[in-house]
Amino acid sequence: NYSELSHTHPHNQYKPTHPCTAWDLTVTVEDLGPDAPPIQISVTSELHIGGVILKLVEKTNLKKDWSDHALWWEQKQQWLLRTGWTLDKCGVHADARLVFTPQHKPLRLGLPNGVTLKMRACFSSSAFRTVMGICRVLNLRHPEELSLLRPVEEKKKKKDKDSSEELYDLTDVPLTAGALNNTSKKLLIHCCSARSHWTLYDGMPAHFADSPKTEAVYKMLSVSLPSPAPEAIAKLYRPASVVDKTHIHTRWLNSSRSLMQQGIRENDKLWLRFKYYTFHDMDPKYDAVRLTQLYEQARWAILLEDIDCTEEEMMLFGALQYHIGKLSLSQDMVSSCQGMDDLESALKSLEVKMVGDSNSTDTLENMTAPELNDYLKIFRPKRLTLKGYKQYWCKFQDTSISYYKSSEDRYGEPIQQLNLKGCEVAPDVSVAGQKFCIRLLIPAPEGMNEIYLRCENEKQYSQWMAACKLASKGLMLLDSSYQNEVKNIQTFLAMQRSNSAGPAAQTDESINTHSLVSPRYHKKYKPKQLTPRILEAYQNVAQLSLTSAILKFLQIWQALPDFGISYFMVRFKGSRKDEVLGITNNRLIRIDLGIGDVVKTWRYNNMRQWNVNWDIRQVAIEFDGNINIAFTCVNADCKVVHEYIGGYIFMSTRSRQQSDTLNEELFHKLTGGHEAL
Amino acid sequence: MDDIDAMFSDMLQEMDLLTQSLGEEAESAPLPKPPTIPGPQEMNFSVGFTDFNASLHDLEDNDLDALMADLVADISATEEKFATEKDTLKGSAPVAPIPSQPPSNLSFPGSSSTLRQATSSNSIAATPPPPTSKPSKEELEEQIKADKIKLALEKLKEAKVKKLVVKVEIMDGSSKTLMVDERQTVRDVIDNLFEKTHCDCNVDWSVCETNPDLQTERGFEDHENLVEPLSTWTRDTENKVLFHEKKDKYEVFRNPQNFYMWKKDKKSLKDMKEKDKEQLLEENFCGASVIVPDLEGILYLKEDGKKSWKQRYFLLRASGLYYSPKGKTKASRDLVCLVQFDNVNVYYCKEYRIKYKAPTDHCFILKHSQIQKESQYIRYLCCDDEWTMTLWVTGIRIAKYGKQLYDNYKAAVRKAAGSATWASRSIQASSSASTPSPTPKARAANGHAPQPAVETKGSSNQTSFPPPPASMETLPPPPPDPMLPPPPPAPPSTNKVNQFPPPPQFPQSSFPPPPMDDLPPPPPPPPEDSELPPDFLPPPPPIFSSCGGEALPPPPPDPIASLPPPPALQNFASAGGAPPPPPPPPPPPAPAPAASKPAGSVRKVAPPPPKRTTPQLAAPSGGDLMSELMTAMQKKRTQ
Q1: Nearest-angstrom CA–CA distance, B188 and B180
Q2: How many helices (H) and strands (E) does chain A have?
Q3: PH domain location, by residue (chain B) (predicted)?
Q4: Chain A residue numbers touching B376 (CB-CB < 8 A)
């Protein structure tokens, strides 16, 4: 059979040795140890790769499962994976140095959340397929949106190398990918995009349930991590300019080639990141890990100023991080599954409904319950008098505060009634100074009435503050979120207390507000100044469930003007200076480096075709209306640009496809470039 | 807390009292005044309500006519409905359960039933209770009590629904007066107006508010509630509600490229393919988060408290309106937030060049909707030209409302497409007494479609009313949102929102002694009528039912299901024609309104004048309205 094959092959004419002449092939078998000498086996050029492997294994005298092993040709940097091909057909001669090595090797994978996970990955298939395999193990849907890149070179690597990095290890998880033949590869492709390919075990894919160790890995993957220490943020690399942001593209792996081919070796470190900013069919029910990791990537993008935002937005991001962190901490393993989260809330609302419908006495109780009565100090700065705070008996009912001279007068007419619906509520709090004020801006026909309520202590403050906050949204005290709101305010105050007490030691209950914002704000504000700002933003998100908070974070992130732009340093044809090309999911943006202004945009739906001249590494694009542009990449490889454009076009085809299967072939066609041919 | 407790014990006592005294009172005409019940919810009612007497007087005469006629029509319609329903019920039910007749202190069968019959209407609820095994007296009382509480609670909820009579000025200078329920969205109101006017129902029609003090105009978004913003108007406001076409309302969805690719030459965008437009919309409105147009450029900002306007470089972001301070780049981190959109609305302004010495007349402001007068809390902005202003205002609306805006548009398009077919269909329907339409919306459309006919009939609504029988046949329950027959064009002089007192009719009508309840209730605003389907689900025990049950809105059963068969309806339609409008047709509502008058009409905007306690029980506040209307009508007549 094989000889027939080789006969038909045109290469046969040029072979230097006679097909029957035996020669020695040198193969290093890694499993014999690093110091063992290479093995020499006698072969003919007609011997196929399978035969070589057989001979090799016999010669090693080692009894083990060799099924994952394959031959790697060192000089040519390529795998000899086609076992049916003869040595001759592969072009292997006596001078070849082959290595017999497993295709799946441990890799240190830097996850979006910053954790390093040790796991096995395929070093012989295309990086795209390797990512698919990784994502399958991690339970991440839509692996086409992710890719691998080389980490930023860290300077002072030495000292903390061991501790944090080896914490999470999934190398023992049996990989079905171990015996990847063609059919199972197809299966794998299907699995990667199918909704639920793992039987869930306690809300977690079964393969994580093997041991407490793997369970911990799943928890790490699916629950967002506590906020990092401010120092840790400051230590990490931050792009300082658009030019800096272009550097990331020098680090992406080529998705059409294998890891080995790209110089990645066993135990090397690679980052796994979302590469294409279009997140298809995000579903909290199935996407616990995906959602969490995406959130983590977004959070770090904001903390490291990878994407710019305004101060107001930063405070909101900070508040959401705080909220998400707090909820994540309080979550145990099972309910960390996002689906459960939803289910619980659904049940709760159902409960409420049923109670409301059937049990009138309960409703009665509810209706009579909500009211706050207390002495508070009120101050209205609008009056020109210099009168300060004056004490009144205040009654909070429904969405209004009525105040009276004293508690004896409470049945009479109040001095004033303030309806808080639609008002602005801001905290004016200093735990250290024991100042607990609520600033109310109540809209009225003439403008806004500014009123301060001063509370005696934290408890009183949290109750009244929560009530004001709800009332401003038109909710009454009987709203189910009230107690939660009170608690949230209390914990936030506790956080401030510990901040003012001492340096930022992160405990369960309190965190340094500096770990919620980017280093720019570390310089601008002290934690003490930051707290009220974040607290203010926090009021608006404190009621969100964990999943909704994460979704909200992602939503705001995606609404940022600079979201989803990947920057490349390019030189346009005919131009003498470097410029920046932004690539997004729907358009190309030409950006002037000097001012950072958008000079021009081209949309993909006007694009006729794009070509890459691999010899001069130039990308040429033609748009409708006979518009042609061409550019070369200054720092990144033009294959990366090519992959981005092709990748986004691939992503946009997904929505139209009904089937859940990932069309790997199309992806390769669109991104492969000359490798696809 | 105490108040509510007190109120409930009061209510329970009251109910007991009523049931006990049922027998004697059934015969006696003079109604005992029910005691007052102080309720905490009064506070809510009083806020923001103007004296509706005053506003009633301000109404144009013809408006009054229209309003009156409409109300009367509604009353007779409901009455008729109940009457027919009672008939049908009587046929099937009457004999059954009287055996389980409870305590003797109730006079049940004889007098009250005749009374019921005589006085018509809502007494259907008196249908005897299911003949269950005889419960002990205690159990029964428990049960009664529980039911009462439940019903009372429901009524309380219902009673909280605010309604406004709104005068809407239409472009040609005419106006329409309609009643708007706080649950209605602007979309509902527009749909009503479509039926009342002969406009083409395109998507550009919008309900706007104008404020002459601030010289502003804002189109309400379709999903907003109309009552809420109108409630915040001051009592002597000159504000108006307009109904007209606004081209820029949904322009962004027709030509998204002009907004999302605003930097490009507008001419080059003119011929954009529909497909590309759709894709633009898809990209910007259908993703995980709505993308706000990346507007930036120089606008003039009026400085706080000063007369000068300063140029600033503004940028629009999803999180708010920002400007870059002098000497800084426009990098995100350096931007200063002028305003975030959570609590403010955006308003177009007129003639600010004169009013505020603005550089151009293309100004818009951002303010809390409650602010009605010049204030330091208003942000005044000025653009170079009209298109820039449209861009920014639209951009801000997108930032504020997000996907909701797109949903509104799609609904409006559907509506516009549907209205054409419905127009033709309703003509058909009215000619051939057709079947009730499937969807509530469609039903409303159908029901109201014939109304223009009334208008064409003649200027005197009184004679032409009630609406033509043919149309009524197609009309299931009275439409939930009452519309007044279009009055003859009125001079657009005074446009006021007449704010009704929150209608506490429901609780009221349930408490007063039985005889009164058996009277046709003074015309309450129809929405509630429609919720009075006679087939009362858990039939309360007889004692109860005869006193309060009929007026209670049962847990909303399907109105259609509760409808009497068509023949009955026919019956009603013809009967509906009978009562002459002016004094409410069916027997004497006179005592009730009279009782209500003293305190019921006094309402203040200011904080909590807890005076409304009396009216609340004294009589259905619908009585207030009716009596007021009546006197107004009389006055007009005598003139």
Answers
A1: 9
A2: 20, 24
A3: 292-401
A4: 447
